[in-house]
Amino acid sequence: MLETALAQLRFAGSILFGTPFSRRALDHLIDGLLAHQQEFGVEDCRNSELLSGPALDGQTRRAMHLRRFRTQAARAARETPHYHTLFAQLAVDPMRLRYEDIARIPPTPKEALRNTPDSFVRRTARPCLRTTTTGTTGRPTSIAFSAYEMQTYVALEAIGMLVNRQIAPDDVVLISSSSRASLGNTCFAGACARIGALVCPSGLVDPEITLGLLAELHHVPGKKPRVSYLLTYPSYLGELIEVGRRLGYRPADFGLERIGVG
Questions:
Q1: Angle between helix 147-163 and helix 23-40 axes, rounded to 10 deg
Q2: Which among 160, 162, 183 has a CA at the least distance from the CA of 171?
Q3: Residues contacting residue 136 through CB under 8 Å, at least 6 positions apart
Q4: Given CB 3.0 to 4.6 Å as the disulfide criterion, which of 36, 190, 228, 237 pairs with 154?
Q5: b/e map 47-76, b = 16+ CB within 10 Å
Q6: Radius of gyration (Cα) for the chain, nearest Å?
Q7: Tens of pLDDT along 170-211?
Q8: Which tens digits make up the pLDDT trace of 133-176?
Q9: Contacts of 156 (CB under 8 A, 6+ apart)
């Protein structure tokens, strides 16, 4: 209990002050949420006070956001070539930003990311993954991520899944999405694995194959007998429904409980 309480404090501190998340604290929070689910069954973890933070009035929230924005802007200007040049051209000191100054900072255009992706990598970072957009016309936009960022994304996504009762340790998860969506697939699969679910990445194959995978019986100890969670796109889900009806599939042929589309 003490370790979980300390993990809550570290998590809240990172949210409030914009400091890096502690991977150990995130692990303790995940373990705490898993223990909560095991003790209370299917009770919605959103009713748990495990992640509740202090209530903030409008003025305090505004001051907190401005302080965090200043910290992020100063870090970007200090450690990335793109924002170092940008703030110099704007003649703006990131640590003295006011709310009125934020409107002077232009949105980062996609062309900048596409043409000079390395200028957005922090000088102190150790990138381990460069991934690209999947919906861009022409040359895709690429962004680099460090091992710390990837591990943090996985942990935060696992926390979100547990809080929203999206994935449980006994789930069988089928990922039917593009293999090019490496960031989303990696983080989602990693979060499912951290929770303890069984992940089956199938990709965007022929709908008949996916329907067969959804109807397939499993005999894995501690897991549900069929796929219980499907992650896919709305258009592909529509194809599955149309092909399933044509092939004569019935609801009793599947064990799906939840579908994530996006």
A1: 20
A2: 162
A3: 110, 114
A4: 190
A5: ebebbeeeeeeeeeeeeeeeeebbeebbeb
A6: 22
A7: 999 999 999 888 899 999 999 999 999 999 999 999 999 999
A8: 876 677 888 899 999 999 999 999 999 999 988 999 999 999 99
A9: 21, 26
Contacts for 245 with CB less than 8 Å, ≥ 6 apart: none
Q: In the block, which residue shows the tokens 């000088």?
A: 123
Say how far apart CA 173 and CA 260 lie, in whole Å. Answer: 10
What tokens appear for 138 in the block?
């022409």
d(CA 33, CA 15): 19
- Cα 161 to its chain centre, rounded Å, is 10
Closest to 163 (Cα-Cα) out of 14, 243, 53: 53
Residue 106: Cβ within 10 Å count:
8
Cβ atoms 226, 216 nearer than 8 A? yes
Kindly report the pTM of this predicted structure. Answer: 0.81
Find the DSSP H helices in 48-137: 58-79, 81-90, 99-102, 110-115
| Per-residue buried b or exposed e for 122-154, using 16+ beta carbons within 10 Å of the residue's own CB | beebeeeeebbbeeeeeeebeebbbeebbbbbb
Q: Which two tokens stand for residue 43?
A: 């009770």
Angle made by CA atoms 143, 21, 71, in degrees to the nearest 5: 70
